[in-house]
Write a structure and sequence with these properties.
The protein is α+β, with helices and mostly antiparallel strands. 41% of the residues lie in helices and 21% in strands. The protein has helices at 2-19, 37-44, 46-64, 71-89, 93-123, 133-148; strands spanning 161-165, 174-178, 192-193, 196-202, 212-223, 228-234, 246-255, 258-267.
């Protein structure tokens, strides 16, 4: 916990100076050099400029948060998507304010989730006890898999890393379970191999009974216009047109109780 508090304190120190910037001056770009319609409009409108200052401070902090393998690519893609959305607004202030408000909410969610994930990896934090019965049943399945291999989960490394968010939009938390930290005494590759780990996405909509299984790594939760989506770094064969150095991301998004999966390539981050 001390490590997490230190990280939060450090980020607060980085963020505060930017959040108190003068509201008449945008923080994410130089207004004296603004030429695009969206940038000029941001600089001329005090409220939107203040939103830009807040967004710029949050993104500055977000860049300082240690990320999982491959997550830097998603962070860059989200930033590019924001700039594209802002550009489409042109000088429409109402549109610009909405784009900024959505981006600020997404950054706050991502910063919190990224810090929790970083803390969990650094400290071997397991899934919290007292999870819904259906989720606990999924977790018990890891122990059973290890038992079938003739071993047992090692104490202290017997519960998966977990993230939660309302992915299927039913108002109840769903769970992403990552067995990366689990250790089976019978097999080092019981849950993860060169192809990745068996990530489970357990949904409240079906009582967590039929988790979506994804072979990959670096699961992250990202805020979209429609709500939170889950992203997993998957095998490059899912992105056949990707360049040799690209990483392939699978995005799981829900609407009306059903999910869709899309694949997109982006430059792989430096390791």
């Amino acid at each position: 916990m001390r490590a997490l508090l230190s990280l939060v304190s450090a980020l607060s120190g980085l963020l505060l100076p930017l959040l108190i910037a003068a509201p008449a001056q945008a923080a994410s770009f130089d207004c004296s050099k603004a030429t695009a319609a969206d940038e000029v409009a941001v600089c001329r409108d005090g409220v939107t400029s203040s939103l830009d200052s807040e967004m710029g401070g949050l993104y500055f902090a977000y860049e300082k948060v240690p990320m999982f393998m491959g997550a830097n690519g998603a962070r860059h893609d989200d930033a590019e998507a924001f700039l594209a959305a802002r550009g489409k607004c042109g000088a429409d202030i109402t549109c610009l304010r909405k784009v900024y408000t959505d981006r600020i909410a997404a950054l706050k969610t991502n910063i919190e989730a990224s810090m929790q994930q970083f803390f969990a990896l650094q400290n071997g934090e397991p899934a919290a006890p007292g999870l819904p019965a259906g989720v606990e049943k999924v977790i018990a399945g890891y122990a059973e898999s290890c038992k079938q291999l003739g071993g047992a989960l090692v104490a202290g490394a017997d519960r998966p890393l977990t993230m939660s968010a309302d992915l299927d939009r039913d108002g109840v938390a769903d769970y992403v379970l990552n067995p990366q930290n689990l250790q089976c005494s019978a097999a080092a590759t019981a849950f993860c191999s060169n192809g990745g780990c068996q990530i489970d996405i357990a949904l409240s909509g079906d009582g967590f009974a039929k988790p979506i299984e994804v072979l990959g790594g670096a699961p992250t939760l990202t805020q979209s216009d429609a709500g939170t989506v889950a992203k997993v770094w998957v095998d490059g064969s899912n992105c056949p047109k990707a360049a040799a150095d690209d990483a392939c991301w699978a995005t799981y998004e829900w609407a009306d109780g059903k999910h869709t999966v899309t694949y997109a390539a982006s430059p792989a981050p430096a390791m």
